[in-house]
Design goal:
about 230 residues; alpha+beta; 6 helices; 5 strands; about 45% helix
Length: about 230
């Protein structure tokens, strides 16, 4: 059966006229956000709407772009006729995917040195990911200071607190862990790198590498029989 989270609807609500996108998984939600829609998180669902204050033509262009992006990514999209399109814009690797690749490096690290190398990309003082995140927060603080709206000063203050307190703690803790791993110089006990080399003492002509055989697994014992009722 096809996965239901690969299906979406993008339509105007027949009662309110509001442009709404419903369905999809977290990847589809990212596509909708990059197309310009705003996520609305409810108890039982997350859907997306157009930003407030847009003209109808701008909403239609936004919805048409969202339909094109989703279909290009392999999603099945039902939509109003005004939003239907044959366009399939080229996809690209989002920045978050590049950062998430560090998780794969940590999961595949065969030594503490390799794990430390991956964490270094997060914690590097000048151009690490956390240092760049601090720059983004600082720039957003400056933006709200300049906007000057009733709540903008509070938002700027809140962002300063996040950067100065929470982000600094995260950066400090991860830097400490990275340094401990860099000093450890230990292999991961459950991971090894296959050299695909056969030792000269190997007698079996069919041998292809020197990796130890996988550990034997035994079936789980059957559950104990329930004791009979005492008479």
């Amino acid at each position: 059966m096809p996965r239901t989270d690969r299906f979406l609807d993008i339509r105007r609500d027949p009662h309110s006229g509001e442009l709404l996108a419903r369905g999809g998984d977290s990847e589809a939600h990212s596509v909708l956000q990059r197309a310009g829609l705003v996520a609305v998180v409810r108890v039982h669902e997350t859907y997306h709407r157009a930003p407030t204050g847009l003209a109808a033509d701008d909403e239609s262009r936004l919805a048409t772009d969202a339909v094109a992006r989703l279909r290009a990514a392999g999603y099945n999209v039902d939509c109003d006729a005004d939003f239907d399109t044959d366009a399939r814009p080229a996809g690209y690797l989002p920045l978050g995917a590049s950062v998430a690749h560090l998780a794969e490096r940590v999961r595949g690290a065969t030594t503490t040195d390799k794990a430390a190398d991956a964490l270094t990309e997060l914690t590097a003082a000048h151009d690490g990911i956390l240092a760049a995140l601090d720059e983004v927060l600082t720039a957003t603080v400056g933006l709200h200071d300049e906007l000057g709206g009733p709540s903008d000063k509070y938002i700027a203050q809140r962002l300063r607190h996040i950067a100065d307190e929470h982000l600094r703690v995260i950066h400090g803790d991860l830097s400490y862990l990275r340094n401990k791993l860099a000093d450890r110089h230990a292999p991961h006990p459950g991971r090894s790198t296959c050299t695909e080399e056969v030792p000269s003492t190997e007698q079996e002509r069919s041998a292809v590498c020197a990796c130890p055989p996988p550990p034997r697994t035994f079936p789980a014992p059957p559950p104990p029989m329930a004791a009979g009722l005492r008479r």
